[in-house]
Write a structure and sequence with these properties.
This protein is α/β, with parallel strands linked by helices and 158 residues long. It contains three helices and seven strands, in the order βααββββαββ.
C-alpha cells in the first residue's frame, strides 16, 4: 500500500466490530452446520454443505480483507487537529457551488466513506480538492458530470 489508510476511531471500531461478528459469531455457526451436513452422506447434492462452503469462503475473504485494512490503518482523531482553520482529515466542511447549492461534507477514511450521509473518502477527488483549503477559498473539483467550483463556507471539527 503506497499511502496510509487514514481512519477515524469510530471507523476503526466499526471495522473491528464487523471482524469480531464474523469471526466470533457467524463463522463458527457456519462451520458447525457444514460439519453436520458433511456427516449426512452424499455431499454432491447436499445444499447445506454446498452453500455453507460457499458462504464460508465469502466470510474468509471478507475476514482477510478486514484484517489487512485494520493492519494498515492509521487511526487519526479529528478532535485533536491543531490547525482548525484549514480543511484536513476529519473536517466537516460546508461548500457552495456556482448555483449557490450548499452541501455539508465530512472528510473520513476511504473505508468509512458513504456519500449518502455526506461522508467523503479522504482520497476521493472531492476530498483531494478540498485538502488544505481555508474559509472563502474556491476550489475546482473534477466530477464525473464535469468540472465544478465550490467555495468553502464553513470548517468545523468534532
Amino acid at each position: 500500500m503506497d499511502r496510509p489508510n487514514y481512519i477515524t476511531p469510530s471507523g476503526y471500531s466499526a471495522l473491528k466490530a464487523e471482524y469480531d461478528a464474523l469471526f466470533g459469531g457467524e463463522r463458527p455457526k457456519l462451520v458447525e452446520t457444514i460439519s453436520w451436513a458433511a456427516g449426512n452422506g452424499d455431499r454432491s447434492e447436499n445444499g447445506d454443505y454446498i452453500y455453507g462452503r460457499k458462504r464460508l469462503r465469502e466470510i474468509d475473504r471478507r475476514l482477510g480483507w478486514l484484517s489487512r485494512r485494520m493492519k494498515a490503518a492509521k487511526v487519526v482523531d479529528p478532535a485533536q487537529q491543531p490547525d482548525r482553520s484549514r480543511v484536513y482529515f476529519g473536517a466537516t466542511v460546508t461548500v457552495a457551488d456556482e448555483d449557490d447549492n450548499q452541501r455539508v461534507l465530512t472528510l473520513v477514511g476511504d473505508d468509512e466513506a458513504e456519500a449518502g450521509t455526506g461522508h467523503v473518502g479522504w482520497n476521493s477527488p472531492f476530498a483531494r480538492a478540498l485538502r488544505g483549503a481555508t474559509l472563502g477559498d474556491v476550489r475546482r473539483v473534477t466530477l464525473p458530470g464535469g468540472e465544478r467550483e465550490y467555495e468553502i463556507l464553513a470548517i468545523s471539527y468534532p
